[in-house]
Amino acid sequence: xxxxxxxxxxxxxxxxxxxxxxxxxxxxxxxxxxxxxxxxxxxxxxxxxxxxxxxxxxxxxxxxxxxxxxxxxxxxxxxxxxxxxxxxxxxxxxxxxxxxxxxxxxxxxxxxxxxxxxxxxxxxxxxxxxxxxxxxxxxxxxxxxxxxxxxxxxxxxxxxxxxxxxxxxxxxxxxxxxxxxxxxxxxxxxxxxxxxxxxxxxxxxxxxxxxxxxxxxxxxxxxxxxxxxxxxxxxxxxxxxxxxxxxxxxxxxxxxxxxxxxxxxxxxxxx
Length: 271
What we know:
The chain has about 270 residues and is an alpha/beta fold. It has 8 helices and 8 strands.
């Protein structure tokens, strides 16, 4: 079975994009990647803390950790006790581990996915409708990957989606998925999922934290005021491809498919 860990960015009002980032990994490899990520955290902390799970790989928080006086309106960050250079080194090492992870079976390799939706894409629709479309695209791309692994490598797998907790949207996402499993939506019918998405706290598993790192890298890359592909470049080759054609990352703009956007995801569609 493949597990798809999903996180989102840009859900707040005024965001420059709604982003879904995801890691698909075979169940046989999931425990080892979790351990290796723990090891990277311990290495950069210089010790094994009793509360290791509290040191969550949350990219935005690690880059901008708030100390107690700065966090009067919210909780202080556990990362604030570490120098910023140390935190950024850990962040770089985490992205490098994602990039360099070697699966136990190359026929069932991990894959990254990303869906970026510009707020002006289908501007007449509501934000929730655009989010629904983004989830349908993401889950269909995962479904296609499962089909590809079955046909190309003769490795039949079902997929299970595990999502970071998002209480206000959990029932909607599960209802949408139930519909897409029963019949085709705007994109297609989901044929290979074992069940509806499950939700858990990202502190419970490093693999949801990987999904955060993926979504964060995309969110920064598509910031129109200050695009930054520092992190996306590190993991770009990990996005799912079919016959060497990029499949796992898509950017929806008002002129999607017209060639107006020159980002790597959009240009790959023109080739």
